[in-house]
Amino acid sequence: MITFIANIAAIFLYVAASLYFLSRFSRQKLIHPNAILIIAACALVFHGGGVYGLSVSQAGFHLGFFFVSSLIFWVVNLIVLISSLKKSLHNLFILLFPLSALAVTASLLGRDTDTQIALSHGLASHVVLSILAYSLLTIATLQALFLAYQNHQLKQKQHMDRVRLLPPLQTMDSLLFEILWAGEILLSLSIISGIWFLDDLFAQHLAHKTVFSIAAWFIYAFLLFGRHRFGWRGYTAIRWTLAGFALLMLAYFGSKLVLELILNYV
Questions:
Q1: Which of helix, strand or coil describes residue 166?
Q2: In whole angstroms, what separates CA 124 from the centre of its chain?
Q3: Which among 240, 45, 244, 37 is positioned nearest to 133, based on CA atoms?
Q4: What are phi and psi of 39, to 5 degrees?
Q5: Could you state, in order of their start, the residue ranges of all structural domains in the chain?
Q6: pLDDT band at residue 111 under the 50/70/90 scheme
Q7: CA-to-CA distance for 236 and 238, rounded, in angstroms?
Q8: What is the mean pLDDT of the chain?
């Protein structure tokens, strides 16, 4: 019951904040960072309690599709909250809050499998690194979407007042690549830990995850090389970021969607 109440409270805060921020943004009014951070901190407390209650038991950890989705969004929000204390990332909450509300709702309503596993220290480190890598690269993707919005509005010269509510384009671009570097490093560590701690990285239930994760790693590496060597930015950076994220999501959520949900319903 406590877990259910915590998740409901998190959903309420995420939805209320989303409506408030959407209203402010649509009327071209500044969204005060302190208000965002306070609401995000409160929502994270309830969200974290809900994730813990759903995912952790004496038998082990529940790593089902919907539960892990909720966990990843909790980690994403936490990273953005902490980073916003020094960087101009608080605008990402405009997208994160409604997505987080959907993820928490799905964790309550979705029919996950009942499989629970006990993690060794090595496997736990691989899972933690993977979640952190996915979370950072999710943040990079949201940042890329904001960049795409800014570029489009500046080229069309529309809704300039709304564009001015966001940090300067150069700042947003620099932040994108800072996040991409951190995400690529963690993704590298995740792949290395998987090779080290998993018995067979290309086993039938892991093959798709491995192939798509490595493909995503190469795309991000190519993008970072292009930035360093040719100064890539703008739509080029946005397209490669979205392509890498698509492969990364297929790596984890694609295989889990098929194995845990579609096959269960068929």
A1: coil
A2: 19
A3: 244
A4: -65, -45
A5: 1-118, 119-266
A6: low
A7: 5
A8: 84
